Amino acid sequence: MRLALYQPDIPQNAGGALRLAACLGLAVDIIEPCGFLWDDKKIRRAGMDYIELATLTRHSSWDAFCQAETTGQGRLVLVSTKGAVSHTAFAFRPDDILLMGRESCGVPDSLHDSIPDRVAVPQCPGTRSLNVVTAAAIVCAEALRQTALLPVFTPTA
Ligand SMILES: C[S@@+](CC[C@H](N)C(=O)[O-])C[C@H]1O[C@@H](n2cnc3c(N)ncnc32)[C@H](O)[C@@H]1O
């Protein structure tokens, strides 16, 4: 299973997503251009040393992402406030690539319409959206739980 970020705007979110992915054992795709420089110190502050543990692939564009071998091996699932089904009602697969939208505006309508599998995290009335990493964490946890890919729980003394 992979976690893909579409043109992230905020370096702290990219760092947080890398940390999330390292902890949960997900590979990460960053689809550029980003709204920040990749060597921005804020990524490291948020991602800390987990960044070295993450399996990261940067793609120069959406087209480059689509042409990548790893993308061809999986099913794209768009995680969107405009998703067609609740994330808990969706049947995830081990080869899924969970695609997160941009903080400022999600993904373009044309891209949204081209991805048939779209899930939303239900929210309380009057709330607009979750932080992108919060939404990713909720959906990744459910997807990993369903596919029995969660890291093995080791109780501490
Ligand atoms: C701040 S939101 C973007 C809001 C933007 N106005 C939109 O409509 O997509 C950034 C990203 O977080 C994810 N996200 C936030 N809340 C979500 C929710 N309730 N369900 C699914 N994805 C969500 C989506 O991937 C979204 O593109």
Automatic annotation (TrEMBL):
Q: Domain named tRNA/rRNA methyltransferase SpoU type: which ranges?
A: 2-140
Q: Per the annotation, which location comes first and is thus the protein's main one?
A: cytoplasm
The positions annotated for binding S-adenosyl-L-methionine are 79, 101, 121, 129
EC number per UniProt: 2.1.1.207
Q: Where does this one sit in the cell? A: Cytoplasm
Xref: InterPro entries? Alpha/beta_knot_MTases, SpoU_MeTrfase, TrmL, tRNA_m1G_MTases_N
Mind telling me which CDD domains this protein's record contains? SpoU-like_TrmL
Keyword annotations for this protein? Cytoplasm, Methyltransferase, S-adenosyl-L-methionine, Transferase, tRNA processing
Catalytically driven reaction(s) = 5-carboxymethylaminomethyluridine(34) in tRNA(Leu) + S-adenosyl-L-methionine = 5-carboxymethylaminomethyl-2'-O-methyluridine(34) in tRNA(Leu) + S-adenosyl-L-homocysteine + H(+); cytidine(34) in tRNA + S-adenosyl-L-methionine = 2'-O-methylcytidine(34) in tRNA + S-adenosyl-L-homocysteine + H(+)
Query: Could you give a GO molecular-function term held by this entry?
Result: tRNA (cytidine(34)-2'-O)-methyltransferase activity
* Alphabetical GO biological process terms: wobble position ribose methylation
Carries keyword Cell membrane? no
Gene Ontology cellular-component terms listed: cytoplasm
Write one Pfam family the protein is assigned to.
SpoU_methylase
Subunit structure, briefly? Homodimer.
Instruction: Cite the HAMAP family for this sequence.
Output: tRNA_methyltr_TrmL
Family, per entry:
Belongs to the class IV-like SAM-binding methyltransferase superfamily. RNA methyltransferase TrmH family. TrmL subfamily.
**Described function:** Methylates the ribose at the nucleotide 34 wobble position in the two leucyl isoacceptors tRNA(Leu)(CmAA) and tRNA(Leu)(cmnm5UmAA). Catalyzes the methyl transfer from S-adenosyl-L-methionine to the 2'-OH of the wobble nucleotide.
**Annotated protein name in UniProt:** tRNA (cytidine(34)-2'-O)-methyltransferase
Species annotation: Insolitispirillum peregrinum
What high-level taxonomic lineage is stated for the organism? Bacteria, Pseudomonadati, Pseudomonadota, Alphaproteobacteria, Rhodospirillales
